[in-house]
# Entry
Amino acid sequence: MEFYYYVNIFETKGLEYLLLICFLVLFILMVRYISTSDKKKS
Amino acid sequence: MSNKAVLIGEFRKFFKFLIQEMKPRGKWLTPFNIISIPIILLGLVILFFRFTKGLGSVTNLSQQFPWGFWIGFDVVTGVAFAGGAYIITFVVYVMRVEKYHSIVRVTVLNGLLAYIFYAGALVLDLGRPWHIINPIIGNSFGYNSVLFLVSWHFLLYMIAEFVEFSPVIAEWAHWEKVRKFVSALTLGAVIFGITLSMLHQSGLGALFLMAKPKIHPLWYSEFIPILFFVSSIFAGLSMIIFEGIISHKVFKDLIGEKSHYSYEEIILGLGKGAAIAMFVYYFFKALIFIHEKQWVLINDFWGYWYLVEVIGFVLIPCFMFAYAVRNRSIGIIKIASVLALIGIILNRLNISVIAFNWDVANKYYPSWQEIVVTLMVVFSEIWAFRWIATRMPVFSKEN
# Structure
C-alpha cells in the first residue's frame, strides 16, 4: 500500500497551487503596471 | 453590344492594366535587390536539383532526421510569425477596436503571404511532393493524423485570408461591385479564419506529441499544443511591430499622415498585448517545469540552453515590453520585439531540430543549400509583399 504524505509539497502538488496563486496576483499587478501609461497620457 | 463583347472588352482592359502594373517601379540597384536576387537565383538552381535528384542531393536529411531546417524554420516558425493576422482581425472586426483598423490590410497581406510561402515550402520538404494533394482529394484521408487537420486548415485558412484581402484587390482593379460583394464576406471569413488559426497553431505543436522519445524532456510536454498557440499570439504581435518599423521607413510615402500620427499608439497597444501574452506563456512554462519536476535536468548544457530560451528570450522581452509600454518608449519595444522573435525561432527550432534526437551520436546540421533555399523563400515573400504594397491600396491614406 502506498502512503500519501499530505505535508509533502511535491506529492500534493502544493507547489503548483502556489505558483498559480502567484501567477494570478502577479498578473493583476502587471496589468495595473502597464495600464498606468494610459492614465499618464490622459 | 452583347454581354460577351462587353466581357471581352473588360478583360482586355484589365489585361492591359495588369501588364502596366507588372512594370518595375523605383530604383533597381538597392542593397536589398543586390543581396536578394543572387540568393533567389541560386535557390532556384538548388530547387532544380532537389526536384530532379531528390532530397538527399541537397539536404542533410536522413531516415533518422526526416524533418530538418525547412520544416523547423519555414513551416513551424513561419506559421507562428503569421499569427498576427488572426489576432488583429479578431481585435478589429470582432472586438471592434478601431484603433488598429489602419494596420488590418497590411497584417492580413503579411499573413496571407506567409502562409503561401512558408506553408507552401512544405512542398519542398516532401519526399514525394505530388502526394501533398492526398489529404485534400481523399486519397487515404488519414483522419487520425494531426497532419490531416493541419493540411486542411492550411488550405482553408489561406482561402479565408484571401477572402479577407480580396476587397483590396477589387479596389485596385476598380471592380466596385466585386468589392461590395467580397467586403460583405469579410466578417464571416474573419471568424472562420480565427477558429482555423487557433486550431492549426496548436495543431502544429500536436505534430510533435508522437515524438516524445525523440525530443529532450525539457522541451517535450503534453501541453505543446497550448504552448504553440499562446506563443503564436506574441510571435504574431512582435512580427507586426517589427514589420511596422520597416514599413514605416520603406513605404513612408504610401502611409497617410494620420497613420503616422497613430503609429506610436498602435505600437504601444501591440506591445501591451505582447507583454501580457508572454507573461502567461512564461507561467505556463514554469508550471510545466514544476509539474514535470524538470529541475533535475537543468544542470547540464541542455538545461542552460533551455534557460537561455525561457529567461533570455521570453521573460526579459516580456519585462522590456511592460517597461516600454509604461514609459511610452518605442525604442525599447522595437528591441523587445526582435528578442521575442529570436525566442520564437529558438523555441521552434529547439523542438523540431536542435533538441530533436538530442542524444544520438551523429547530429543533424542543415546543409548550406537548405539555408540558401530558406533565405530564398523569405526574400521571395518580401518581393511579393513589396510588389503588392506598392500597387494595391494596402496602406490606407485616410486612416
Observations:
- The mean pLDDT of chain B is 90.
